[in-house]
Predict the 3D structure of the following.
Amino acid sequence: MSKKINKGVKTPSRRKFFKAAAVTGAAAAATVAMPNIAFGAPKTLKMQAAWPSGANIFFEMAGDYAKMVSDMSGGELKIDLQPVGSVVKTGEIGQAVSSGVLDMGHWVTAYWYGKNAAASLFGTGPSYGMSSQEVMGWMEYGGGRKLYNETLSKVGFDYVGFFHMPMPAQPFGWFKKNVTKVSDVKGMKYRTVGLATNVLTAMGMVVRQLPGGEIQPAMKTGLIEAAEFNNPTSDSQFGMQDVSKHYHLGSFHQSQEMFEIPVNKKTFNGLSPAHQAILKNAAYAANTDNYFKALVRYSADLSKLMNQHKVNVYQTSDEILAQQLKGWDKVIGDFNKKDPFFKKIVDSQKKYAKRVMKYLLMNQPNYKLAYENEFGNIAKVKI
């Protein structure tokens, strides 16, 4: 069979064919290896904290969270962190975030206790043996988050909330003298916030709610006779050592608390799933990092208070602690009777604490025994 050849048509050579194929293949491989990604401008969210800038460990911790968000997103998601009062007053942060005046906030739920007393149960409620670590566990694995979202809805807040930094139990605070008996504090003018105001009022104290920055001046002028804020670092930054030399650690008035990070719901829903996950998981990362930092800084500043400022440091007496628990019983009982939703949250916490804390408390050895075996009586140890 003969072939007819068209003289006007050129047939490509094998060498040219494979050369062209190699170029095409390399280009295709490069396309796979280096996909055409369009990088957009970084997204910046405005956050106002309830804390002043400068030498303030809480503002620093808010900054830690903001940095983690930026680092995790490769700089694509940033937080413009503003100090207290820069856009709205502290008590207005929740509403400002809900309305979109702010994208985010950094505060504690006790600051919106005035809208609904149940707010205090998400950070400054009764202990039932739980520390802040276990309250956060209840939030994520014990039904607390659903109840928290219901509480937001009840007060009209339209935001998504994250939590971080399980705070160590807060000191009973600063007094003009060493107080060991309930009779020592009855009638005393004292500063605190949240449900603790009700608890300590039930103990016979005269409670005033004041912002952090007003505590030291109020004690200096005699408006109050005693006060608490949060921890040795923050307290010393406020200058409490200049108005009192008697510092009582460990108290049930606020034995568990954590930061709340409200994020405007519309803003949050408008983010990519990856950025939503970063806002959530950066809170978990900050949770651990902040706690580690707190233990180092709080203990170092307690040492400075004792050694440089000659502050007398005490553990709050069992008599006062027992009376605080009785105060909690009364306050919780009163709220339970008049507010079924409040009782619903309390019942959930009790159910979680009864099971989880039985395991934890029975499983934990006496760490104080181990400490004193090495260093001697804890009250006499110099740090």
The mean pLDDT is 90. DSSP finds 14 helices and eleven strands in the chain. The first helix runs from residue 14 to 33.
